[in-house]
Structures are given as C-alpha cells and as structure tokens.
Amino acid sequence: MIGKNELFMTTFVELGLIEPICHAVSAEGYEVATPIQEQSIPTVLEGRDVLGVAQTGTGKTAAFALPILQRLAADRRRPQPKGMRALILAPTRELAQQIGKCFATYGVHLRMKRTVITGGVGMQPQIQSLQAGCDIVVATPGRILDLAMRGHARLDSVETFVLDEADRMLDMGFIHDVKKIAALLPAQRLTLLFSATMPPAVSSLAASLLKDHVRVEVTPQATTVERIEQRVMFVAKDKKRDLLLDILGAGNVTRAIVFARTKHGANRLAEQLVRSGVKAEAIHGNKSQGARQRALADFHSGRVTTLVATDIAARGIDVDGISHVINYDLPNEPESYVHRIGRTARAGADGIALSFCDADEIAYLKAIEKVIRQPVPADESHRFHSEAIAHLRLGPVPKTKGPQAGKTRPQGGHQRRGGGGRPGGARRAA
Ligand code: AMP
C-alpha cells in the first residue's frame, strides 16, 4: 500500500491552514505544498520548534511564514509599543526585503502590522515604524540589535523567533549579534532555525536556541547521488524520442520516470510512447488530483512502467523500485537534477540516471556538473550519439542558457527554484 502522503501531494487546506492564507497562496499559483512546507507547517502550527535543513528554492520562506501568520491571526493581540510578536532574522538586506514581501503576499487578507529593518538606510523611519509595535518584523541582525540597544526596539515580547540561513549568518560574522539578540528574547517562545548546511557551529547555535525541536530536512544526501550511475547521452533534439524508445525497449528498465520540461512536452511524449507500445502515462500540474492518483497507482502496481513527469508534479512521487530516471530534457535549474535523480536509488538501492543533452542544453549540463561537483560520464555507445554535440561540451559555456532560459513559469503557474523534490524522502525526526 502506498500511504496517503506518498500517493498524493498535500494541499495547503490539508495542512490545516485557514482560508485567507490558502486563498493568498493559491493566488500565487502554488497548488501543493513543497516537502519542507509539508513537514514544517503542521509542526509550527502545533507550537513546536523547528530545525529546518533546507536551501533557498525549497519553499522554506512559506514553510515558516504561513504558520506564523496563522498563529498570529488565531490569537490577535496588540503588540507592545516598540515590540514585535514575530521576529525574523535574515543575513542580508535583500533576503530580508524578500521575506518581508512574502509576508505581505501571504498575509494580504490578514491585516498584519509589519516592517523590514535593515542597515544601509536611515534609522528614523524605522524607529517610527516600530513605535506602536508590530506583528511581524523582518530584520538583519546588526540594525535591529542597534535599535534595541538604543531603546527603540523591544525584543522581550517576541513570541516567534526565526533565524533564516543560519549558516550564511555565521559565515558573515553575525554570530555575536545573533547571540546578543537571543539573550534579549523571552525564554518562553517558539524558535525556528533554517540552514542549508549544518556545520558544527550551526549545530551548536541550534542546540542553544531550540527546545525539544523537530528536525525537518530536504537536502539530498550526497551519498544518494554517489550511489546513482549517471550518464549523459549527446543526442540531436529530433532523435531523442528514438533514443528513449531504444532505452525503454532494452529490457533492463523495470520502472522509469522520464522528465520533460513542460506539461505540454510531457503529454505529447507520453502519447507518442503509448503509440509505440510503451505502457506510459503523463503526470503534471494540469491533471486533476484523481488523474494523478490513478497514474501513480498504476505506476506503483506496474500497469504503467514509464511515468513522464514535470519537476513540480514529480514531487509527490515516492515509489520504490524506480530503476531509471531519464532526463529527456535537462532541467534549467541545476538543483532540480539532484532532486530528479534522487527518485532512483531509494531505500539503499542503486539506480541509473540517464540525461539526454542536445546542442542547446550544454550550458545546463555544465551548470549541473558544477552543482554536483563532478563530471557526468558520457555514454557514447548508443546509435544516436552525436560527436558534434559532445564536442560542444569542451568549449566555453554557451551564451544562450538553452531553449527555455528565462522562462520562469514552467508549470503550475509558478516555478520554485531548486525543485524541492524528495530525494530519499523528506525526513522528519524529533
Ligand atoms: P524559497 O525557498 O522560500 O526561496 O522559495 C522559492 C520559490 O518557490 C519562491 O519563488 C516561491 O514563491 C516559490 N514557492 C514556494 N512555495 C511554493 C509552492 N508550494 N508551490 C510553488 N511555488 C512555491
């Protein structure tokens, strides 16, 4: 049996979020929660501390912003003068502004008093915006500490404290400021700490700030990637389908996910495969929940052996025994590659990841190799191998970033940087 979360993608309503918030995220084009959101939102709503190991691009901002908004809305009270109910610390001004915008967007129906406090701008307007107290303050550590020291900000009534990008914060030398800020916070509070990596300094900071926390992790483990046999196949665009048919017909493919870049491309490819006698189905964000559920159940039972998927739709797929991941189109976000290939080699199994690369995709390949810090070996043994395309790999990175460069809404109306897939499963452990 496949469990509910493995078969379905979780919606924001199912995570227990109230209507004004669900309404705001759906206006943003978010259809389902990302793995970090699935894990973190209920935990924060329950009132438990979270240690989130997640990179930018996984949807981590909404993972803390949505439940914080809900908690504030559920227990409306006037913030203390110069005080704040939620304090979010970010390492850079840009990130603080971006988080501030997310709170504005997600909280558009909730009437929250918010402000963003960063260095590099005058203090006076910030002092004024804090005067009557705020529900939400997003800040960089130096400036908010400065304001607190001068008596313009009070941190002793903070109910929820978020430390975002803790590893970057420490790299940038903010550890002392963060510790001083933490010392001004009340002991009784909710604390959420997010970090892309967990070096010892972040672990010890987490240990000093968090109480009885839940660890939520969506970073792919390097070992998963190492266990996967990866190959790139240089092939002309118009030969990709024939190459795919050769691979699927070779006899060693028991269960394959084929990644296409667009919903339309996924549909067309699945139809062509079916016409060629392959038991294939497409799965993407335009399909109804019922259709997706049926496709996944058929894939699980073996009635369908090849699932043609787009990145976002593939997030809900958590099926063991996937022998091959085939990148029919290379992803334009290199992190998606890691998430995609993590679909195979689950539960200690080995897996094979094959990536088709046409002349327009060389830049994507190079970006991927940079992220995984290793070259992807080429398979030149297939009958569609193009030496001319293989040769391009040796040259400088092409200027054009490939056919879809610049398109940021590949499906579901909204693209998430870095995929946020569930390689090896999003783990949640106390
Ligand atoms: P973050 O990791 O918070 O920087 O988010 C990365 C991007 O993903 C942002 O552009 C968000 O708007 C987007 N995003 C966040 N959650 C979702 C979701 N559930 N579905 C689609 N896009 C999302």
Please characterize this protein's 3D structure.
The chain has 430 residues and is of the alpha/beta class. It folds into 2 domains: 6-221 and 408-417, 3-Layer(aba) Sandwich (Rossmann fold); 228-392, P-loop containing nucleotide triphosphate hydrolases (Rossmann fold, 3-Layer(aba) Sandwich), CATH 3.40.50. The protein contains 17 helices and 14 strands. Strands 3-4-2-5-6-1-7-14 form an 8-stranded mixed sheet, sandwiched between helices. The protein has a 6-stranded parallel sheet with strand order 8-13-12-9-11-10, with helices on both faces. α15 crosses α16 (362-372). The longest helix is centred in the N-terminal third of the chain and has 15 residues, at 60-74. The chain is elongated. It starts with a helix and ends with a strand. The model is unreliable at 1-7 and 400-430 (pLDDT under 50). The structure holds adenosine monophosphate.
Mean pLDDT: 85
Q: Number of helical segments?
A: 17
- Strand-pairing-aware structural class: alpha/beta
Number of domains: 2
| Shape call | elongated
The major sheet is characterized as: 8 strands, mixed
Q: What are the bound molecules?
A: adenosine monophosphate
CATH third-level topology of the largest domain: Rossmann fold
* CATH architecture label of the largest domain: 3-Layer(aba) Sandwich
Radius of gyration, rounded? 23 Å
SSE topology:
Elements: H1 4-7, H2 19-27, H3 35-46, E1 50-53, H4 60-74, E2 84-89, H5 93-106, E3 114-117, H6 124-131, E4 134-139, H7 141-149, E5 160-163, H8 166-171, H9 175-184, E6 190-195, H10 200-209, E7 214-217, H11 222-227, E8 228-234, H12 240-248, E9 256-259, H13 263-275, E10 280-283, H14 289-301, E11 306-309, E12 324-327, H15 334-341, E13 351-357, H16 362-372, H17 387-392, E14 427-429
Helix pairs in contact: 3-4, 4-5, 7-9, 15-16
The site of adenosine monophosphate has 14 residues, from helix 4.
